[in-house]
């Protein structure tokens, strides 16, 4: 999956800015996504799962 900016994620998810911000923050806290500052934008991408996390995700 390619990295996405907040505007694209917001359009896809169809949720308010505050709710999106909250959920992106929660996903970053558990290392599921990372955000990279690119000028005025933050571009988010999924983080790779380590093998034991991949097994737990399949449960």
């Amino acid at each position: 999956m390619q990295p996405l900016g907040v505007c694209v994620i917001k359009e896809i998810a169809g949720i308010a800015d505050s709710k999106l911000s909250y959920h992106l923050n929660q996903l970053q806290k558990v290392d599921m996504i990372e955000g990279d500052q690119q000028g005025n934008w933050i571009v988010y991408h999924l983080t790779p799962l380590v093998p034991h996390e991949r097994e737990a995700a399949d449960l």
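The radius of gyration is 13 Å. The CA atoms of residues 36 and 43 lie 5 Å apart.
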